[in-house]
Amino acid sequence: MPVIRTPEERFANLPGHPFKPHYVEIGGVRIHYVDEGAGAETVLCLHGEPSWSYLYRKMVPILAAKHRVVAPDLVGFGRSDKLTEVSDYTYKMHRDTMVEFIKALDLKKITVVVQDWGGLIGLRVVTLLPERFSRLVIMNTGLPTGEEKMTPAFMAWRSFVEKTPDLPIGMIISGATVQGKNLPPEIMAAYEAPFPGPEYKAGAKAFPLLVPISPHMEAAPEMRAAREGLAKWTKPALVMFSDKDPITAGADQGFRDHIPGAKNQPAITIRDAGHFLQEDKGEEIAGHIVEFMERSPVR
Questions:
Q1: 2 near 85, Cβ under 8 Å?
Q2: How buried is 165 (Cβ within 10 angstroms: 0-12 exposed, 13-18 middle, 19+ buried)?
């Protein structure tokens, strides 16, 4: 399992990202995380594919004004170490790393914010460590078990990743925002910063192939277990999807119907935002999260 590390100079002068890096070693791999603000409660922000904690840069200052905000980079992304082989990236590895990350930092009273693969990993971790979590914020994600029909948009994305040796990370991010081609080149470069070459992108190539498209895939029973756990989740849960994401469209109502703690929360839709809604409307989303936390205090 060869491990490589993106040179630090790749992260110099990131626009809109003044945050000091923090690191913890888990299972022989160095994990990077943003750690801003202070307080008894923690907002844990989990990114997806092929982004990194940079995606939350617009939200961190707003949330950190009142709470501690922790935004890790998953293994293979951001400033965290990368494994060079696609086969080294398993669902179990990601799940276990996040469990150990939370334990290593001893995070409690967590409001977890998940999007894309942050949901597939984070919502399962919630059901494994429920005593550490106080609230859920669920955005543009899903819990596929391999029994449902995947959207044509997802299958096209999966096929593209499978056939593309060197993923164009910046183009992928910009293409999944409403800003699209108008996303500034320096922002696209920031998303590309963790990946100096194809050998750094094994984690990004692995994620789409780990999404269960049959009930026999590794992550399928984990997704079923997450669903079962969330069906009993009575603590507050805010479901907040965007209106212009062909990948996860319609899954928001499924979460609202399935999670008891979501039934008394407003049905919020982030307008004019794509799959990476944090990039399109980060400040607006952070405002909704602050309001959500204020109206549902931790008991």
A1: yes
A2: exposed
Token duo for residue 15: 């626009």
Contact 172, 274 (CB under 8 A): no
Please tell me the distance from the alpha carbon of residue 165 to that of residue 205, in angstroms, as a whole number. 9
Query: 288: how many CB neighbours lie within 10 A of its CB?
Result: 17
- Under DSSP, the state recorded for 26 is E
| HSE toward the beta carbon, residue 261, CA cutoff 13 A | 19
The C-alpha atoms of residue 266 and residue 176 are separated, in whole angstroms, by: 26
Residues annotated catalytic, as ranges: 116, 245, 275
Q: Which residues pair with 139 in a beta bridge?
A: 115
- Tell me if the pTM is above 0.85: yes
Rounded Cα distance, 74 and 85, in Å: 15
CA 5-7-8 angle, 5° bins: 115
Tens of each residue's pLDDT in the chain, 299 residues: 799 999 999 999 999 999 999 999 999 999 999 999 999 999 999 999 999 999 999 999 999 999 999 999 999 999 999 999 999 999 999 999 999 999 999 999 999 999 999 999 999 999 999 999 999 999 999 999 999 989 898 999 999 999 999 999 999 999 999 999 899 999 999 999 999 999 999 999 999 999 999 999 999 999 999 999 999 999 999 999 999 999 999 999 999 999 999 999 999 999 999 999 999 999 999 999 999 999 999 97
CATH 3.40.50.1820 fits 3-294, yes or no: yes
SS3 37: coil
**Residue 229: which of 207, 261, 266, 253 has the closest Cα?**
261
What does the domain layout of the chain look like in residue ranges?
A: 3-294
Q: Are 298 and 109 in contact (CB under 8 A)?
A: yes
| DSSP per-residue codes, 48-114 | -SS--GGGGTTTHHHHHTTSEEEEEPPTTSTTS-EES-GGG--HHHHHHHHHHHHHHTT--SEEEEE
